[in-house]
Amino acid sequence: MSENLQRRSLLKLAAGTLATGWLWQAGSAQAQAVDAVETDTLGPLDTVVFGDMASESTHRMNATLSDVVTGGLDQAARVLNPPEEPGFWGGRLAVTMACRSKGPTYVTIKLWGSEHGEELGRLQLFAEGKQVGHYHLGAVDPLDIPAADPRTPERFYFHTLPLPVELTAGRSSVDLEIRAMGRIAGYAQSADDYYKDMTGPSRTVYRLYTHDMPYFEPVADDITGTLPTLEPRTSPGSEVIDKINARVVAQAGAEARRTAPQLDLMYLEFLARAYAMPSTDAYRNPAVPAQIASSLDAIYWNHLTDGKLITDSSQQWMGLGRAGLVMLALADDLAPLLDEPVIGSPGTISNPGFEYGTAGWRTVTWSGGGTASRDTGVHRSGTASVTVSIPSSGTVGWATSTRIPVGQGTYSYGTWIRTAGVGSNKAYLDVLFFDAAGKLVGGDNKFYASAGTHDWEHVTASLATPATATQIEIHLRLQDAGTAWFDDVTLTPPAGSAYSPVVRRDAWSTMLRATREYWRQHIPQYTNQAIICALGLYLADRGLSWLGSADAWGEEKARNYVYQSIGLVPWLGPEEKDGRPTKPLGSSYYQVTKKGISRELGYAGNYGELQDWLSLVYDAVIGIGGVRDDVLRDHLIKMVKARAVFHHPSLDADGYRTMRIEAIVGWRDAEYPGKTAYDEGNKWDGHPMRLAALLKDPDLTAYARQSIADHQVFQMLEESSELDVSSRTNLNLLSTAGDYAYINGAADSGKVLPMTPGQPDFVFTDEENGLVALKHGDEILYASLYWRARWGINRLARIHHITPDGIERSATVWQDVRYVADGRTFAEPDWVNFEFAVGDLVIPDGGFPPPGDTVHQAFAGQVLPLAKAPSDMPEVPAGKESPFAGRASFYRCEYGPYLIAMNTSADRAYTFDTRSFGASRDLLTGAKVGGNAELCVKPGTTVVLLKR
Q1: Where are the strands (E) in 583-656, listed by range?
Q2: How far apart are CA 702 and CA 141, in angstroms?
Q3: In what helix (H) or strand (E) does residue 555 lie, and over which residues does it extend?
Q4: What's the rounded Cα separation, in Å, for the pair 904 and 891?
């Protein structure tokens, strides 16, 4: 850009930013601090080589708690050490470096990519005594956030951050500081838990640079390292599948044999799915439906007494919707049980047929000795009875665990008794009456089975309730030698009894209705959360339909919530109590872009990998007693294929080739590199191959087979299997063996992931997310132009650049933007932790401030103009997060050899020129572009130029 054009642009900005919505932030013609005439610089303005005494002296370096070391590739460097007393802040490196007096100055750090682990803590940049950026999910992030995996093994990488333009205005030098700190726990609920003490040396720090161009170009003798040979893993192998399957089979057997109610819905879903798996002991096991019914009964009672069960449980935003899935999975087997009383209903006998273990009963020895147990080999009906055996003498039997309330009138009592070698009047039913204080007021009332050995005999009695009695116990007893079995105990109240049982159909409907009604009024906005919530609503309503509830919406309306959550129809948000949608983002907002990427505040890396929840979407609608929906299936395939673009080549922690999720440009990603993923990565609720095996698309099958060929699928699954054993991890692993068998044997397209080395060049653009991904040869560029702009236009873009030789750059850079202003502005708060407010009673806006002296934000006071939101969207106060406030209509981002011009609007064209960029080639059309051309970018399109 020429000086005249720069001046003209700045005058435009000063004259009417809010009125015109035009911003120009130049980065190519800045002031050389030591020159009388301002000139462009292709390399660094200044460089500090840490560990080099001359360089450190020149830059007046002051080191605290720091050691000089010889680091990667024998390069001089420094580490910063923890404090002598336990604490969060560690060592510091303070230097004075050249900067631009006009326009942007960038700071880049050089780090060794083999180092990894949260124990390294973090490195935070300060300028002129103020912190530059935020610790957690700020548009300007720390200098370094180590992750579990190394970022670039055996190579250096470069991370670039912008300084506030106002901070360096009129200056030729700037005081910079690198401060070491402990790690942070992003979800902690107190400052003490959030800020972790620094416990060991920091990541090694090699060089710090200042420069005025967004793209950092090291000088020729700046050693960067060489990309290691990309070799596939050789282990582990398919034995991991066998190990996981053995674990699944063992857990399924344990759940099938369980006699106490299972209150964890994830384990109930595990058991329901295992019921259909021939490889497990749960397969068609007659005890499973009864176990699931009794567990759902217990969850119903818990729901009545714990109002938070549907809001604060491990089910997250699904509430109790998973209960609907469990019912549907065993619909045919549960149907005969629906009109029975819920176990524990007032005035009824809990577990009268002993189908639910021995719940509701206790063993009693009144005298002598004998054994009492549940017998699944002998039963009159169902799958079990209880038995008592006495070798010689005594009285032993069973009694109801709690007393059963009764009213006045004549009740009928009964049980079926089978005997072997018992004496006369020795096997019997006994009914005892108690008053409200627990005093015995009527008993014993004994009714005997026949003596000797015989098959099932029905023993009954009719008893009038004593005047003062309010409750009873029922005993099933054997006296002296012999064996007796008891089954199908009955209690029939007189007509008009106040104690009417709660029928299972009604009880289960009550809890499904409650969860549906609560969550339809509290639907969250972020895409993954919206999908989880919609699944809960859909499954709850399908359960209600199956139960025959008059309150069920029906398939079409219930599925619409799923459609909203995955972007097939507009997302209308939470509802009022009367069912009216609140439309917090207007009536035309889609949760997923036209290109298939989740839409929040831009591209999301890990949280945008939705395959785990899309698997459940498929299962819920199509897989488990559902309906054919080709529109839904095709849309899910589109979403997964769009994500495939954001899986890039890398090395795993052991140095083997892999593909990783792009996380550096992800707005909700707190650390990088991203995790390994081909068709799908490891998640708490999903695993590789799962969705590919469900959707059976040839391309997705091929991506999954690529992970098998690289042996990465086995490594991922081994890591998943080593997580803490829980209902969630067991449920996640349940289908692994079946998924692997399908992928191994299915036909595929022969394709590999688009970013795999050697694949064709392409450009992917998503204008709704301000997102670009391109492959040129084996060079990869990811760019998020709409970057963490929560509450206003911040003019920042996020870049991840990978060269063919494996050198990586990550950068937050200024860019040029145009937008339609709504007339309001918001000033960046003086926060240093979060760059957002959480609206939480525990966590203050901006997050917990760090320990020690008060730290101030270098970007505090920066004025952010708000872009205009859709006309039918309720006004959001300035300073509150919105997906529209910081989204520009046009972006022009120049980074090294690339120029991206993106028009995100739906109804207007924008023009830009190439005078500051030079001659180039359009990567989308192949056309040559001159160095003084003016190009038009149509609505919803992007131009990507590569310098010639």
Answers
A1: 647-651
A2: 36
A3: helix 555-565
A4: 8
